[in-house]
Amino acid sequence: MVDSVRAPLLDNGGSNNESGAQLRRAESNGCIIDRVCIPVCRHVSRRNCEILSGPVGAMVVYLTARATGAGNETMEADPHKIAIMLGALVWMAFWWIFEPVPIAITSLLPLALFPFLQIMDSQQVSSLYTNDIVMLMLGTFILAQAIERYDLHKRMALKILLISGGQNMDPRLVLLGFCAGPAFVSMWMSNTSAAVMMIPMAKGVLDNLKPLASSTSSASQPPLRATSSPSLAAFMEDEEHAIGSKLHDEDEELEQEERRMAEAVVHTYSQGVMLGVTFGTAVGGMATLIGCGPNVVMPGLYHERFPEAPQVTFLQWFKFAMPLAVPYLILQWLFLCWYYCPSSAVPILSASLNRQLVEKDYESLGPMTFAEKFIFGEFSILVVLWISRTFGSTPGWGYYFGNFPNDGTVSIMAAILLFIVPNKIKEGEMLMDWKHCKGISWSVLLLLGGGFALSKGIQVTGLSNYMGMKMQFLESVPYYLLTPMMSIIINVATEFSSNTATATLFLPIMAEVAVSINCHPLLLMIPATFSSNFAFMLPSGTPPNALAHGTGFLPVNDMLFPGFMMHIIGMVLLSIFTPTLGAYVFGLDTPASSLPWIFE
């Protein structure tokens, strides 16, 4: 009876009057299930469920924490506030993962929730959205927009491709160019911006990659021998014609088979090129502190949790990340060559690649303008200032200003200068104007602020101490297994949510886990930062993945195995470099108990 009534009620084709009459009949018959289910079914949707997942999950976690006495064992923390902060953490995590609202809006939740939940007051929360790290990214974003406005990034990428391909445009070297070019560009701007520029360029080259099968030229027919018998000559002519037709058909079949093989080789190589661009943007972004969201988040969260700790500088990160990114990029290229460009494919691809096409694209940019030269020079100076601000124990230029300026200071100065200097292209027009700033990733800036607020909330409520106590069992885990274990957990999470959101969520937890097992906080925070960038397997993992998938060259199934291999390579490199080079650059071999600033 229930199904017989509910089915017509949910039929959108019926009129409202008929549905209302059916509903009244159901109510008169006392059908309680229908009276409850019908209105609910009309309003239930996937998006509504995702929206409810945040507050409902927060409430469930809060009640569970209070019922189980979570936080009672911590002497200095209020169990009520620990439970509230756990609920807020779950709310933000669910919304970051499912994205029922934009990630940037989820990042504003601390501004709305924390004051009402009495975690922090409005002034404290608001200040976290405009700290030095946020200003560093704002200045960098403006400079990146200037680079894109004058196609300076395209000029650099095409030049790298021409140099790497050589005169003969060796397909393996061209593939190296499509790995290294995006990686270099991605070191200085967001991965998405680098991919937006490089993927269409790669697609343009691949669309003109015509498979050339080996031509089979039939030998000319020998002249008929002179004979005295006309009938014999006619017979021989017919036989030779039949044999010639058969040979011609066989040649056509052979040529078609060769063409099919050549097309398959070109298609396979095209997949490798697209993956080279996508993977290259991710690997290059890891090399600098401004290359991707997780890299920017980490120093801010680290300083927020340990205010007295020495800051992670641009030079420090570069000294650790660049030696890791270079072999990562080389291994990526070797894997793509082995899987997508074997030796048997090189002759076919070499005959198909067209250097003139790339040269034409480069020449279409014309000579470098004043705007390009100025922006390139300013950016080069900015990188030098970032690197030389401090050399650790050796003072840099920041020492002569009382160490008041920071990386964000010079980044904002460089951005302001772009609005002052004319571009010498159009009278009265400056290198940058506010109209061209609309492409800035404002959502990333809000996400950074939300992450800093979340980290501070975890600290002030005592949730950090509680999580540290619960993670002390990891102290028995061998030192060399910590990085792989942590990487596996974050690798899975980052495939289904934003890289920056994943880092923002896991980094504060990793800091507390490290302290609880008497390790340097960066011993887990740095590998966690890198692992947040290892979203290689799914189109939903990152915007570059989605862009590559959208070209039509890469179905989802063809991304799984190469993405998995990139995970494995990254985990192996992290496991090697973190306890070795990391100990030299960051002192990661120092136990937490020997760090005076840990408990300050």
UniProtKB/TrEMBL annotation:
UniProt GO cellular component terms: plasma membrane
GO terms assigned for molecular function: malate transmembrane transporter activity; transmembrane transporter activity
InterPro entries named among the record's database cross-references: SLC13A/DASS
Spans traversing the lipid bilayer: 82-113, 133-152, 173-199, 325-349, 370-388, 408-425, 437-457, 477-493, 505-530, 564-586
Keyword Transmembrane helix listed: yes
Taxonomic superkingdom: Eukaryota
Keywords in alphabetical order: Membrane, Transmembrane, Transmembrane helix
Gene Ontology biological process terms from the UniProt entry: transmembrane transport
Membrane topology: Multi-pass membrane protein
Compartments in which it is found: Membrane
UniProt xrefs under Pfam families: Na_sulph_symp
PANTHER family from the UniProt entry: SOLUTE CARRIER FAMILY 13 MEMBER, SOLUTE CARRIER FAMILY 13 MEMBER 2
Protein name: Citrate transporter-like domain-containing protein
Source organism phylogeny: Eukaryota, Viridiplantae, Streptophyta, Embryophyta, Marchantiophyta
